[in-house]
Design brief:
Strand order of the largest sheet: 1-2
Number of helices: 4
Order of helices and strands: HEEHHHEE
Shape: flat
Radius of gyration: 17 Å
Helix content: 25-40%
Structural class: alpha+beta
Number of strands: 4
Mean pLDDT: 84
Strand content: 5-15%
């Protein structure tokens, strides 16, 4: 996946090395609970799109889940973190109605720091400040 991630490589490498040694066959999905504008913060009223770019890292030697993630990209080509739940459900053996996945994929809604929900394309900007 084409994602910019600011992770501590040492910790992530330790997890991968341990999983390689102990589990052999595994899939790893790492994601943050929120995005952050480095050296500025998160949850800013008008922080722009950068504060919604949540890091996602996936390691899947079978490539099954990486392929699922690629297929879950929305119409703009973005993979949104909300799709992680469908990958996790599949990992746990649950079958999800493809129409449910498609509906979420098509409607890219964001809960903004003003407690309102917006389409990702229409997030408020500094000029919208009242």
């Amino acid at each position: 996946m084409d994602v910019t991630v600011n992770l501590c490589p040492r910790n992530l490498n330790q997890i991968i090395n341990m999983a390689d040694a102990e589990l052999k066959d595994y899939a790893l999905l790492y994601t943050s609970d929120h995005a952050e504008i480095i050296n500025v913060g998160h949850g800013l009223q008008y922080g722009g799109y950068a504060q919604y770019r949540v890091p996602v890292f996936m390691l899947d030697k079978s490539k099954k889940y990486c392929q699922m993630a690629e297929e879950m990209r929305n119409n703009d080509g973005y993979y949104t973190e909300v799709m992680n739940k469908f990958i996790l459900l599949d990992m746990m053996g649950y079958t999800v109605n493809p129409d449910s996945i498609s509906d979420v994929r098509i409607h890219d809604h964001v809960l903004h720091s003003d407690s309102m929900t917006y389409d990702y394309k229409n997030l408020p900007t500094e000029k919208d400040r009242k």
